[in-house]
């Protein structure tokens, strides 16, 4: 089992819909979770980070974390064609504050006009 | 502020050769991480340097090495290149090496090994 797993997609949603991206991780001591967006041919950029159970909202983006079930998700409301990209889930496996990021393979999202 | 700069942007090498990639972090950032990205394996962590010291290392063979200079610029070296080393190599910088710090990625170096 991979340490961080994501559905590869492609996930296709119509413009204006909610896109839901999921990520599961294997190590219970993980404390920090990140969502990066990568456009085709570009480098990843951070869009959300979450550290506590529950929801964290930032504009059209909501990250949800459930440590008991070991999953983290990203919701994109009112999806736009410009949201079409690959979304990478990254999990810091160290229990402490030192960085040791493990990445999922990413979910490809296509938002259709 | 200028972003993370990686050079060269593209490289073509043959098996057995060696290659050196360069990364200049954002001014003031002291941490530089290196990643290999391939379609099949995704982003894989190579190593991280902070204030010229290697802090973490991923599961790559010893052919992959790196260093960081006093101005935080970093280089990565791959010796005895293999076909499987063909990948996009990404460098990321952050102010520190704590888990909750945002990583800023460079545009990458696309390495092709023939």
H/E series of chain B, N to C? Answer: EEEEEEEEEEE
Question: Which residue ranges of chain B are poorly predicted, with pLDDT under 50 across at least 5 consecutive positions?
Answer: none
Q: How far is the first residue's CA from the last residue's CA of chain A?
A: 36 Å
Sheet/helix structural class of chain A: mainly beta
Helix content of chain B: under 10%
Say what oligomer this is.
heterodimer
Count of beta strands of chain B: 11
Counted by DSSP, the helix tally of chain A is 0
* Largest pleated sheet of chain A: 6 strands, mixed
Please name the two chains that share the biggest interface, counting residues whose Cβ lies under 8 Å from a Cβ on the partner chain: A-B, 24 and 21 residues
SS-based class of chain B: mainly beta
Number of strands of chain A: 11
Let me know the average pLDDT of chain B: 95
Percentage of β-strand residues of chain A: over 45%
Task: Explain the overall architecture.
Chain A has strands spanning 4-6, 11-14, 19-25, 32-38, 45-50, 54-58, 61-66, 71-76, 85-92, 101-103, 107-112. By secondary structure, chain A is mostly beta strands. In chain A, strands 2, 4, 5, 9, 10 and 11 form a six-stranded mixed beta sheet that branches. A five-stranded antiparallel beta sheet of chain A has the order 1-3-8-7-6, with no helix packed on it. In chain A, strand 4 (32-38) and strand 5 form a beta hairpin. The model of chain A has no long low-confidence stretch (mean pLDDT 92). Chain B has 114 residues and is an all-beta fold. Chain B has strands at 5-7, 10-13, 19-24, 31-38, 42-50, 53-57, 64-68, 74-78, 87-94, 104-105, 109-113. The interface between A and B is medium-sized, with 24 and 21 residues.
